[in-house]
Amino acid sequence: AQSVTQLDSQVPVFEEAPVELRCNYSSSVSVYLFWYVQYPNQGLQLLLKYLSGSTLVKGINGFEAEFNKSQTSFHLRKPSVHISDTAEYFCAVSWDQGAQKLVFGQGTRLTINP
Amino acid sequence: GAVVSQHPSWVICKSGTSVKIECRSLDFQATTMFWYRQFPKQSLMLMATSNEGSKATYEQGVEKDKFLINHASLTLSTLTVTSAHPEDSSFYICSAGVAGSYNEQFFGPGTRLTVL
């Protein structure tokens, strides 16, 4: 079965430091890749997505991610984080175009310390 | 664009009662809607997928008679938790997708259900 792995359940970072949240998935055949952010007691907000084309994808709030087909990874990065980036981040992958299903990673809790 | 709403945002009910949660796509027509359940500090668990006018497809382990899903129109899907028990307390999130949109899903704000 296809799977998505977020290697870090928690990532503490100081404000204005860079951060990378890691995401790996089980197969690179015809994938669509997404990163979502969830603030407490809220739904999911799309940060960025890779559908095709350039492997470096830029999203909202200064985030970017790079699709690496050979390593089946889609790591999320931000060069300088802010307190407001404290949230839960989910990587999601879609393999089955017909069913439109997303498979989510376990989530990474990003905590920004002053 | 692509806004999804849920109602109510939170609900408290007594054990044994039924609760209905609505999910609406406000500015687009959703060919497919999804219902997820999220426990504290955990990821989203897909419960079921529904297409307008047809029966929902439930994931393995999800009781279809307990979690009734109706997708009556291209902008509305409802989840009814029947005979709710405390173990059904959770955060329920819906999402909506559009055919041909690279499987992107647009998420609602979620509904917090507490069963006493």
List the helices and strands and how they pair.
The complex is a heterodimer of chains A (114) and B (116).
Chain A: E1 4-5, E2 10-14, E3 19-21, E4 24-25, E5 32-38, E6 44-50, E7 56-58, E8 64-68, E9 73-78, E10 87-94, E11 103-104, E12 108-113
Parallel strand pairs in A: 2-12
Antiparallel strand pairs in A: 1-4, 3-9, 5-6, 5-10, 7-8, 8-9, 10-11, 10-12
Chain B: E1 4-7, E2 10-13, E3 19-25, E4 32-38, E5 44-51, E6 57-58, E7 67-73, E8 76-81, E9 90-97, E10 105-107, E11 111-115
Parallel strand pairs in B: 2-11
Antiparallel strand pairs in B: 1-3, 3-8, 4-5, 4-9, 5-6, 7-8, 9-10, 9-11
Written overview of the protein:
- The complex is a heterodimer of chains A (114) and B (116).
- Chain A has strands spanning 4-5, 10-14, 19-21, 24-25, 32-38, 44-50, 56-58, 64-68, 73-78, 87-94, 103-104, 108-113.
- Chain A has 114 residues and is mainly β.
- Chain A has a single domain, classed as Immunoglobulins (Immunoglobulin-like).
- In chain A, the strands form 3 sheets. In chain A, strands 2, 5, 6, 10, 11 and 12 form a 6-stranded mixed β-sheet that branches. A 4-stranded antiparallel β-sheet of chain A has the order 3-9-8-7, with no helix packed on it. Chain A has a two-stranded antiparallel ribbon with strand order 1-4.
- In chain A, β7 and β8 (64-68) form a beta hairpin.
- The relative contact order of chain B is 0.33.
- By secondary structure, chain B is mainly beta.
- In chain B, the strands form 2 sheets. In chain B, strands 2, 4, 5, 6, 9, 10 and 11 form a 7-stranded mixed β-sheet that branches.
- The termini of chain B are far apart.
- Chain B has strands at 4-7, 10-13, 19-25, 32-38, 44-51, 57-58, 67-73, 76-81, 90-97, 105-107, 111-115.
- Classes of the chains: A mainly beta (114), B mainly beta (116).
- The interface between A and B is medium-sized, with 24 and 25 residues.
